[in-house]
Structure formats: C-alpha cells, structure tokens
Amino acid sequence: MDYRKSLEKLAREGRLARVRSEVDPVHELAGIARAYEGGKAVLFEKVKGSEFPLSIGLWWNRDNLASLFGVDRAELPFLFSRAMQSLSQDCAPPVIVENAPAQEIVMDEVDLGKIPVPTFALQDGGPYFSNCVVIARDPDTGVRNTSIHRLMVKGKDRLGLLMDIGRHLRDYHERAEARGEPLEITINNGVDAAYYVAAITPSAAAPIDVDELGVASYLLGEPARLCRSKTVAPEGIADAQLIMEAEILPHVREPEGPFGEVSGYYAARDDRWVVRVKAITHCRNPIVSALLPGKEVWNSVGLGVEANIFQTVSRQVKGLKKVYMTHGGSHYHVIIQIDPPIDGLSKNAILATFAAFAPLQMVTAVNSDVDIEDPEEVERALATRCDPARDVIIIPGARGHELNPVTDGGFGAKMGFDCTYPVPKDRKYEKVTFRKVNLGDYEIV
Ligand code: MN
Predict the structure, then answer these.
(1) Rounded distance between C-alpha atoms, residue 394 and residue 275, angstroms
(2) What's the angle, vertex CA 111, arms to CA 110 and CA 117, rounded to 5?
(3) Distance 138 CA to ligand 1 centre (A)
(4) Which neighbouring-strand residues pair with 105?
(5) 212 alpha carbon to ligand 1 midpoint, in Å?
(6) Which of 47, 170, 236, 340 could form a disulfide linkage to 243, CB 3.0–4.6 angstroms apart?
(7) Hey, where are the domains in the chain?
(8) Is the backbone peptide bond immediately before 340 cis, with ω within 30 degrees of 0?
(9) What pLDDT does residue 134 have?
(10) Residue 143 Cα, ligand 1 centroid: separation in angstroms?
(11) How sure is the predictor about 403, in pLDDT bands with cuts at 50, 70 and 90?
(12) How remote is the CA of residue 141 from the centroid of ligand 1, in Å?
C-alpha cells in the first residue's frame, strides 16, 4: 500500500483529522500536531507557502499502525521481528521499476522552499525533515543502506545532516570522504510504512553487509520497488511521494541545530555534515510526510527494538514473554516480561537486553502477571518485588546514547531493576484478582 492509500485507509476508519485552515509551517503546524499526538493522524491540507499538503502522525498510535499492517496491536513487534529475521534467509532482491510514480514530475529547478517542511519546536534552528528514508551504497562493497536521519533545510539546495556514531551511513561517508569523494544518496519522503520499518531496523539485526530493504520486501509480500535516479547512483523508492537526489559533501561542516529531539531535550547547534540536493522528483499531487519527534519515534524505534530484543534475548534466556519500550523513557527504558524457570535468569535477561540495544539506559524485568504497558502496574512491581539491596544492577562507564543528557556524550552508567519474584513463587507474591464480568449483562444507570 503506498503512502497515499495508507492515509485513505486511515481516513475511512475515522483515524485521520483533516485541517482545512491554512497553517504556518513555522511552529503553528507542530502546535496543532502536538494536540493530536497519540490519537488520529493529521493531514494539513493547506500549508502556508507550499502547494503540497502535509501529513503527520502515522506512527504515534499503535492501533493506527496495526490497522495499516492488518494485524492485532500486540502482534506488531512480532510481525516486525519476523520481518527482521527474514534478513538472514535468502530474500528476493528489490526490483527496478521503469516509469516510477515518484518520478512523474521533475522539479525544473531544485528548490527545497517549494516543499512544506515544518519548524517544530520553539528553539529549533530551522525547518526539518525528520522521517525521510535515506538510501546509499557502501563505497567499497556496493551494499545498500536504508536509514533515517534528521535534515535541516538551509537553502534552496542545501541541507544540514546528523549521522550518529555507529550509523552505517556515517561509516560509508567516512570512507568516501577519506578519498575526497562525496557520498551519493536519495532522500525519500512519503513511503509505505514497510520501507520505514526497513530504515529503522537496528544494526544488531542488519549488520553493515546486509541490505535492510529485505525487511520491506517481507512486509510488502513482494520485492521492494526501486527506481533509477537521474543524477546519483543509489536508487530511490519508486512509490515515494517525493525524492531528493543528493550528495553528502566531503570535508564540509556547517552549523546544524538546535533541534527538539526525541529525548525531549534540544540537541545543540554544532558544525555537522552538509548535503547538496541535485534533483527533486515527485508524483502527481504529492502528500509530504512529516514526523513529530516524540511518540512517533518511541513507537517506531520501540517496535523495531522490541522485536529485535525479543528475538536475541529469547535465544539466550528461557521464559521471556514480551518486551515494551516505554514512552516515559524516551527510548532509553525497556521493560521485559519474563517468568524465569530458575532463579537468576531474570538478571541474565536484563544483561542480554542491554547488549541487544546499546542506547538503553534502563531495563526493568517483571513477571507475566504485570501489564508492561501500564506504568502503575510496573511501579507496583518495582515497589513490591524489587529488593534494592539485591535486585538493582548498576553498570558504570558504559556506552549509551549521545542524545541522553545524563550521559557524557553517550558515556555513562546503565541501570537494571529486577522486579521479578524469586523462583519458586512464594504465596505472598500472589496478586489480588476479581471475577471477570460483562457489564452488558447488568442494568446499570
Ligand atoms: Mn545498514
């Protein structure tokens, strides 16, 4: 299903709000989006200064996503897990589509100003693309990489770029730059959610020699559809709403930021990488796609990470039931649900979870009688099942995430809370339960 069809499906199901009034992309658009965060997706039909409408919020509600993927909400991380696992099997390579919808119209002159790009938070340094799928090729092996990076609009054909430590795109760029060469990329906006899942696949599941697009093919049920670019070597996504063909310049750094990040804090302005856009193509009447940093990222990172953690930890530790990345934890806190068959395994599971996703700062383990999406139930387990003298694990001086302000550029401690009861379960840990009833059977006014 392409992006437009996804929006149409959400609209039919009452999951899309349409904003008819003209909205300023500077601060006003994000202010409205913020009011809807976690609920309906939003389509801004008229964005000041642009002919194209803009949508936001496809990822901030797991029920909306479940509807798009045609599965139950609880099934989503497992679907993503199977998709990521499929990378280790032989999967059909992407196909190249001639006359791709994404290339129906070629912009006469590259002008990023024609695209609606929101300035989100009040102290942001400028307008940002926050959910474009970037495709590049390894300068040595030619293996494709698919990833998402924030991009600040700096001029008609110029973008500022952030590449975190450890990202494959940064590795590609460093090798190209050492030869004094630019790294060519395509920047794809408004893509089927399957491509987005491919782009958020953690490197633990897709190492540098693996093409993440296999994840998209698995979810699409057919090979990913790409198109040959007009000015650069890497392909674009044939069914994208809009594609920017571009290159990351060697030995050029310019100020980028600040940007209100997913951590809930501003990433500081600093000299960072620069992208020059060489061509822009789009489908007829494109709907540009944006993402509000927050729940959309916690869900998207969460669903990818939950799947990968479930897969890797299950291989090492018995009794794992579920994994959830909390929204309060800004993607630095994961709760695992586990009924360990013998004492001690819950702590092994906590360590394995840290190993499965490096940015994590906290891991909490609870039993299967705790609803891991309910912060009150988790807190109750923390207060009544975690013995602070025995069940708190602190790992000082580890590598976390540089956007987490409590770390020193990513260097800091990690902390685990074992809130599982000892094995075998003592009767004192039996939770109070009540008879299940159907309120519809009663006359209640
Ligand atoms: Mn990769």
Answers:
(1) 41
(2) 130
(3) 9
(4) 282
(5) 6
(6) 236
(7) 3-295, 316-426
(8) no
(9) 98
(10) 8
(11) confident
(12) 12
Report residue 340's pLDDT band, with 50, 70 and 90 as the boundaries. very high
Residue 426, C-beta contacts closer than 8 angstroms, at least 6 positions apart: none
CA of 10 to the centre of ligand 1 (A): 30
Q: What backbone phi and psi angles, to 5 degrees, belong to 70?
A: 65, 35
Q: What is the mean pLDDT of residues 409-434?
A: 96
Q: Which fold has domain 316-426?
A: UbiD C-terminal domain-like (3.40.1670)
Bridge partners, 360 (sequence order): none
pLDDT of amino acid 1: 66
Mean pLDDT, the chain, rounded, equals: 95
**Token couple for 238:** 């044939």
What distance in angstroms lies between residue 215's CA and the mean position of ligand 1's atoms? Answer: 12
The tens digit of pLDDT for each residue in 255-298 reads 999 999 988 899 999 999 999 999 999 999 999 999 999 999 98
What is the pLDDT at residue 92? Answer: 84
CA of 442 to the centre of ligand 1 (A): 56
- Token pair, residue 75, equals 């099934």
Fold of 3-295: Pnp Oxidase; Chain A (2.30.110)
Distance, CA 329 to ligand 1 centroid (Å)? 26
CA 94 from chain centre, in angstroms, equals: 22
Assigned token pair, 61: 């509600």
Question: What's the one-letter identity of residue 297?
Answer: V
Q: How far is the CA of 165 from the centre of ligand 1 (A)?
A: 13
Q: Do domains 3-295 and 316-426 have the same CATH topology?
A: no
CA 148 to ligand 1 center in whole angstroms: 11
